[in-house]
Amino acid sequence: MTPWTEVFTIMSNCLPQLGGVSEQVEDEIAAAALAIGASHMGVKSMSGSSGGGFALMSEPLGLAEMSETPVVLIEAMRAGPSTGMPTKPEQADLEHVLYTSQGDSNRVVFAPGTVAEAYDHARRAFQVAYEYQIPTILLYDQKLGGELVNVPASHFDREPNTDPGAVLTEAQIADAPHDASGKFERFRHDVEDGVSPRSVPGQKGGRHLVTGNEHNAPGHISEDPDNRVAQVDRRSEKLQAIRADLDGDTLNDAYGPEDAEHAILTFGSQQGTVEEAVDRLNDAGHSVKALTVGELMPYPVDEVRAFLRSVDEALVVEMNASAQFRGLTQKELGTGDDQLASLLKYNGNPFEPAEVVEGFETNIDGDGEVPGNETRFVPAAGD
Fold first, then answer.
1. 1, exposed or middle or buried, with CB in 10 Å at 0-12, 13-18, 19+?
2. Are strands 108-110 and 295-297 parallel, antiparallel or unpaired?
3. Which end of the chain is more exposed for a tag (fewer CB within 10 A), N or C?
């Protein structure tokens, strides 16, 4: 499904050369389920689709979250809903990716801003997914997927990370807790950072049950209230540990003078456009800096809060009609509407730097009118 097709095509060509397997199945439910099954067996796996196909992946995504099976999924945004405009970019799947699946679900979401970052974020996604036993999603769009840019070969010249994450050896399993029937206690409550180490099928002593139902330590279905609270709290604890881990190796990109008076905030593929606009604005005598957020869940609250507190006001640039990234930022920071204005574009074309410049100057001037009909400016509530 466009624009995910390019990723699948490239992986299909490359994986067999590296000892991997690429499989095209009947639909997106089967694709995600196949990846989860492969991961359950102990190998690193991924799948993906565009918005409509990712909607079908909601059910297996929930299974991965409940069974704590690591997997990496890629969501390639395009203009929707439904078939929408299949070959046009948009950033309107943000809330869909953050919240799809039922219940109090947990997942990690990254949004690379450049082709080079797509590689960096993908490496980090696999590390996080397998270390913390949690689905990790890479979110990008047609603009980024369709770009042809030069990246130094040295950027990719790194050793592959074959670490399977929190998987026990058979010797460790022998010393681990088992229930009265001899089942390995795969889903224990009393573990560090919410991660209960797992076994993989075939390991001696590692037998346990895996289900989409709530379950107790060895995996038996359980509706005991105390167990339910303990399991939900433990799974949620992972996000706190992941946030602390990411703070030491940020995937967010700051640009421009640190002491600037004004700011532009964006995410994903708008990074290069916004940074060129920042250069033009500073050359014109304005005082502007930018932050492109690549870590969308868990959100980098401290970093973004410090960034916004350092300026008088900020313009949030995103390609959708409902200001989803602005809403996420306000939700996570507990910020009102008096500092953040929005510059939105959703006509099927990506932002041009000149449009961001015009939107910024409209915000500064306070007239609320952006020239032309390509973009829409939404002022902060206090303006």
1. middle
2. antiparallel
3. C
DSSP-H helix ranges across the chain? 5-14, 28-40, 51-56, 58-67, 94-99, 115-132, 142-145, 170-175, 225-247, 271-283, 301-309, 324-333, 353-365
pLDDT per 10-residue tile (average), the chain, 383 residues: 88 91 94 97 95 94 97 95 92 96 92 95 96 97 89 88 92 96 95 96 96 96 97 96 90 96 96 97 97 97 95 94 96 85 94 95 76 72 56
How far is C-alpha 293 from the geometric centre of its chain's CA atoms? 11
Report pLDDT for 85. Answer: 92
List the domain boundaries for the chain. 5-156, 170-247, 253-378
Predicted local confidence at residue 158, as pLDDT:
84
- Residues 6 or more apart whose CB falls under 8 angstroms from that of 146 comprise 3, 6, 89
pLDDT at 240: 95
Measuring CA to CA, which residue among 54, 149, 66 is closest to residue 102? 66
Residues with Cβ < 8 Å from 361, sequence gap 6 or more?
A: none
> What is the CATH T-level fold of the domain 5-156, as seen in this structure?
Rossmann fold (3.40.50)
Exposure string of 344-380, with b = 16+ CB inside 10 Å and e = fewer, is: bbbeebbbebebbbbbbebbbeeeeebeeeebebbbb
Q: Are 119 and 108 in contact (CB under 8 A)?
A: no
| CATH code 3.40.50.920 for 253-378 | yes
